[in-house]
Amino acid sequence: MVASGKPGKTGSIVEVRRGRKVLDIAVQDRERMRELAREFEQPLTAVQMASMDELTLLTNLHGFMVLAQLWLDACEQLEKPVSLLYFDLEYFRQINETYGRVEGDKALKTFADVLRVAFRESDVVGRVGGDEFAVLLTGSTAVEEAGIRARLQEMLNERIATAHRGYDICFSIEQMEFDPVVHKTVEGLMTAVDFARHQGAVRF
């Protein structure tokens, strides 16, 4: 009885140790990402100030490409995955035509603020077109689109209700995980996402 019980006990100890090891690795990964954020603070700030979209205070397309490539290179060195989320505001033209340009600008700023709050400091958020936004998710594989959509829509609805606006801010999401062999760079990833958007299909 004693002999048969020992392997089970040993197995449990091994499982606990493995669990702790996985947890330790996850903690180390998060700490490393924080360290990188601190290391990148000055160059990130410089790029953001030089390439800031004046309306939304996010980085513009140029700034996004520079910052995203910087983080992509870091993630490749750490062997961490990277994913890109591409957002396109729907019915934005109707908002401009019905409520005016000023209200359209407010809608853009509201969406930008929600993106800024919703994602981490190690993620790169930018306004890459008139009503188009992109987020580079560092250390992340493809995420659940429905969950992101629901979270962002809830935040948007709260802000719209508070401001008593007569319209909704709707958006589409395109998602793609970075493949170093296929995409090679952030520019390659953005090109692939743009192609997928126009084809009406997204690669995961």
From TrEMBL:
Note the InterPro entries from the entry.
Diguanylate_Cyclase (IPR050469), GGDEF_dom (IPR000160), Nucleotide_cyclase (IPR029787), Rev_trsase/Diguanyl_cyclase (IPR043128)
Top-rank taxon: Bacteria
Domain GGDEF residue range list: 80-204
SMART domains referenced in this protein's UniProt entry, alphabetically:
GGDEF
EC number assigned by the record: 2.7.7.65
Broad EC category: transferase
Catalyzed reactions: 2 GTP = 3',3'-c-di-GMP + 2 diphosphate
> Which SUPFAM superfamilies does the record match to this protein?
Nucleotide cyclase (SSF55073)
The identity of this protein, by name, is diguanylate cyclase
What species was this sequence derived from?
A: Pseudomonas violetae
